[in-house]
Amino acid sequence: MATPTRVAFDHDAPIELAKYFRFQWEPVQDCHVLLYPEGMVKLPGSAGEIMKRVDGSCSLNGLVAALATQFPGVDLRADVIDFLEVAHGNGWIHETTR
Q1: In this structure, is the dihedral angle defined by the CA atoms of residues 4, 9, 11 and 13, taken in order, positive or negative?
Q2: What is the tens place of the pLDDT at every residue in 3-26?
Q3: Residue 34 maps to which CATH number?
Q4: Residue 77 lies in a domain
Q5: pTM for the complete prediction?
């Protein structure tokens, strides 16, 4: 299995879903998914929780703070950074340009 491509980005910049993707809950898959013209990416568990907060106004740092409030006592920062850098590398998200 290939190693996912990680692309770092500014942790203080707001991030948003890339234009050709739609995030939604998919009952048949029993998880959140990213839909795009050629297919679908399943986002089970924590991946869905992270992507729920990618709304164009929240930065990676803000997202980590929101998750820390929802899941107190758990250090999620490294896992969130890992996931979002892979999501950025895959072109699912980018820094908001508005």
Answers
A1: negative
A2: 678 898 999 999 999 999 999 999
A3: 1.10.10.1150
A4: yes
A5: 0.89
